[in-house]
Write a structure and sequence with these properties.
Elements (H helix, E strand, L loop, with lengths): L5 H15 L5 H8 L6 H16 L1 H10 L10 H14 L5 H8 L5 H16 L12 H7 L3 H8 L5 E5 L5 H8 L8 E4 L16 E3 L2 H8 L8 E5 L5 H8 L3 E6 L2 H14 L4 E4 L11 E7 L14 H4 L2 H20 L1 E11 L8 H4 L26 E3 L13 E7 L2
Parallel strand pairs: 4-5, 4-7, 5-6, 7-8
Antiparallel strand pairs: 1-2, 1-3, 8-10, 9-10
Helix pairs in contact: 1-2, 1-3, 3-5, 4-5, 5-6, 5-7, 11-12
Length: about 400
């Protein structure tokens, strides 16, 4: 019989291997890593351990190296186990004796003795992590002077953001949910309680959506029955926003599974949209649209607060591949605008080549984003674009990283 807590550690070890060796996302790797686990709490613990190990990987490795005479190979199993042991102790407050009892069975023989000795030495030294995670050198090179502020924001778990079906009920839901609102139609809550148990979920009064992720659809304003196309729409937060704002929405995505989630959210909220399965590089609309929202596939490095795997599995190859796809999608989207129509381009990325590197290629008149359209404390650039990152609104919970630009067809 397994030691209580051991299945979660075993799954967390699989998650680290999937991310660091195979380049998989935590979300994709989670199903295979936790297959057969009956306990939802064990699955949650496995993800929490792997996430914290990835968030603090550089610092955990520095501690490990400080207690070994010869450096362990980066992909050595004892190093990965030690990363999880230290993450459990230093980040999840697991007592050292419990860490040892639940992690050392992952190893045998000499590696087990090595891990036990290193961990015990670090406990004896009463080591601590820095106030903020140290980012990998390659990430610092790409993000430049923003890196220190973003790293500081990574130390604080993100809060839960909700988008409301009816922005006129913002005060009502802020009171009912004991949350705060940073802009009409938005509520921010502490994490902890299961989303499905929160007031308003069953009746579809809101959906989960990071505040930064809600800004692109907000920048299209009220629809008044006009036609809007949500490209790469799944899982559907922006489709729901557009439908709630009075747009006649076509939601296009190539993933049938993710579109099923969109349909479920439409049903729960009572909102309507035309849902189409198709590849935006091959699909063609029957008529032009008054508004097009392209939330393009990207490296998602802007979600590093929630998905620290992006700090380690995203590099020049992935960035270049995404940039090529984004450029092709932008060309097609611009062709489908009706006269006077608006185009929004957004990516949840902190990579400049995916943001302004794409925006400068668009041959449409830019419609600058205005301060009054944004939450207090968030401002557009001098070009009229919008950059968000985890440094913004840090005192009230921060934001994911996004680049957003807007154009209007002549």
């Amino acid at each position: 019989m397994d030691i209580p807590g051991l299945p979660a550690r075993r799954a967390a070890l699989r998650l680290l291997d999937a991310v660091l060796r195979r380049g998989e996302t935590l979300d994709i790797a989670l199903h295979a890593a936790t297959q057969g686990m009956a306990s939802s709490s064990d699955r949650a613990l496995a993800r929490a351990l792997a996430s914290e190990a990835l968030r603090w990987l550089v610092d955990l490795d520095a501690l490990i190296d400080s207690a070994t005479r010869l450096p362990l190979p980066e992909d050595a199993k004892p190093r990965s186990v030690l990363r999880l042991m230290l993450a459990g102790w230093l980040r999840l407050d697991t007592p050292p004796h419990a860490v040892i009892a639940t992690a050392l069975p992952l190893l045998s023989g000499g590696p087990r003795r090595l891990a036990h000795g290193v961990f015990s030495a670090l406990v004896k030294r009463e080591v601590r992590l820095p106030e903020a995670p140290t980012l990998p050198d390659t990430v610092v090179q790409r993000w430049g002077e923003r890196s220190a502020g973003i790293a500081a924001a990574l130390a604080v778990p993100p809060l839960l953001d909700l988008s409301l079906r009816d922005a006129g009920e913002t005060a009502l839901w802020a009171e009912r949910l004991s949350g705060v609102s940073l802009i009409p139609g938005h509520i921010r809550l502490p994490r902890g309680e299961a989303v499905e148990r929160l007031a308003g979920f069953a009746e579809g009064a809101w959906w989960v959506q990071d505040l930064a992720a809600s800004l692109p659809a907000r920048l299209l304003g009220s629809g008044g029955g006009r036609r809007a196309l949500d490209l790469c729409a799944a899982p559907g937060g922006k489709t729901l926003q557009l439908a709630a704002a009075g747009w006649q929405v076509t939601a296009l995505d190539s993933s049938p599974r993710r579109l099923d989630q969109l349909r479920a959210n439409l049903q729960r909220t009572g909102l309507t949209a035309e849902v189409v399965t198709g590849d935006a590089l091959e699909w063609t609309p029957s008529a032009p649209y008054d508004a097009i929202l392209l939330d393009a596939p990207c490296t998602a490095t802007g979600t590093c607060r929630r998905h620290p795997d992006v700090l380690h599995r995203i590099g020049p190859r992935q960035i270049a591949e995404m940039a090529e796809l984004q450029a092709r999608l932008l060309v097609r989207a611009a062709e489908w605008l009706a006269p006077g129509g608006r185009l929004i381009y957004a990516v949840c990325s902190l990579e400049s080549v995916e943001g302004e590197g794409q925006a400068v290629k668009v041959a449409l008149p830019i419609e600058p984003i205005r301060v009054g359209e944004l939450p207090q404390g968030v401002e557009p650039t001098s070009q009229g674009w919008l950059h968000t990152d985890p440094r913004l609104l840090a005192s009230v919970g921060g934001l994911d990283g996004f680049f957003i630009a807007r154009w209007r067809q002549a």
